[in-house]
Design brief:
By secondary structure, the protein is an alpha+beta fold. The protein is built from 9 helices and 15 strands. The chain folds into 3 domains: about 70 residues, no CATH class; about 90 residues, Pdz3 Domain, CATH 2.30.42.10; about 130 residues, 2-enoyl-CoA Hydratase, Chain A, domain 1, CATH 3.90.226. The strands form 4 sheets. Strands 2, 3, 4, 5, 6 and 7 form a 6-stranded antiparallel beta sheet that branches. A 5-stranded mixed beta sheet has the order 9-10-11-14-15, with helices on one face. α8 packs parallel to α9. The N and C termini lie far apart (about 65 Å).
Length: about 325
């Protein structure tokens, strides 16, 4: 065995020198044009695909290159959205998805209903908080992770789902046959929009989605009819959302001409100033805005604009501090 070690080592060293020299040669060449750099990238990718110790699909390598390039920017908000990521972002900003309208959590290994959303197939069918979904379309849900459960419960509007539910205090399981529909998640939850006493109203906004301005206005009008004389506007744990809606919600409370926010960018046309355009609808309504470390992005635009123009008193802890706009 010892007699064969020398040739084996020589082969390994030769291979290392050849591959190492190949990369060294490329590194010592002048940088050249962008087309030469692109050709160099393709050469490196092909070399890795052919000679790396593990077999890697070239599509995977391109994806790794994209992720690596964006990671080198050092900006956590510059990302490449894969289809599932883009779908989730669209759902968050529009508030719309197709499904049954159930908020769920995993408890003791089972999918458990936190709450059915108002005016959804689940609520209309009679699904209740605390119900345990033990089967979906005849398949046991035991051990399912939350991501898997959300994916399975959602689907195109008009498709059906059969849920087998166990309910506390009911001996036999209950079967529900539901038809999926387009669900709108309100950014102002009517279930917690309320009068705290005979004068003070409470509204919570999260996130800042495409219907936020209309929903905030409707909630204030509803509470005003109930006798509201002052408002607590809760923006805690609001991750933000759409810039135009952050501006529009601020516009509800400010006078025309007041600056709401300004953006600055390197690309042509990316710098803008956003001012209030419409008279405020409730000029005599005192407002307290509650914020915390989870208040970010468009929610910070709203809270900052109201504070800057002495339209509201801010209460809470320092906000997240996300001063970036993405498109």
């Amino acid at each position: 065995m010892i007699r064969h070690k020398g040739p084996v080592i020589a082969v390994v060293v030769l291979a290392a020198l050849v591959s190492g020299g190949w990369f060294l040669q490329r590194q010592t060449e002048p940088e050249g044009s962008v087309y030469q750099q692109a050709r160099l990238f393709d050469d490196v990718l092909a070399h890795v695909a052919d000679y790396y110790v593990d077999s890697l699909d070239e599509r995977q390598l391109y994806q790794m290159a994209i992720d690596g390039m964006l990671d080198q920017l050092g900006d956590p908000y510059s990302v490449f959205l894969k289809p599932d990521d883009f779908r989730q972002l669209s759902e968050a900003t529009t508030g719309n998805y197709s499904g049954l309208g159930i908020q769920i959590d995993v408890r003791d290994g089972w999918i458990t209903v936190v709450a059915p959303l108002p005016d959804t197939p689940a609520e209309r069918a009679g699904v209740l908080t605390g119900d345990r979904i033990v089967q979906l379309d005849g398949r046991s849900t035991e051990g399912w992770k939350q991501d898997q459960a959300v994916k399975e419960l959602r689907g195109p509007a008009g498709t059906t789902a059969e849920l087998l539910i166990r309910r506390s205090g009911v001996d036999k399981p209950i079967t529900y046959k539901l038809t999926r529909a387009t669900i709108h998640i309100r950014s102002v939850d009517p279930r917690i929009t309320m009068m705290l006493n005979d004068r003070v109203g409470y509204i919570a906004l999260s996130p800042v989605s495409e219907n936020s301005t209309r929903e905030v206005a409707q909630a204030i009008d509803t509470l005003s009819k109930q006798g509201m004389k002052s408002l607590i506007f809760d923006l805690r744990n609001n991750p933000g959302g759409l810039l135009d809606q952050g501006v529009a919600v601020s516009d509800l409370f400010l006078d025309p001409g007041k600056e709401i926010v300004a953006t600055r960018g390197r690309a042509p046309g990316s710098s803008h100033e956003f001012d209030d355009k419409n008279p405020q609808q409730w000029p005599r309504l005192p407002i307290v805005v509650i914020v915390n470390g989870g208040t970010a992005s468009a929610a910070e635009i709203i809270s900052g604009a109201l504070q800057d123009h002495d339209r509201a008193v801010l209460v809470g802890t320092p906000t997240f501090g996300k001063g970036l706009v993405q498109s």
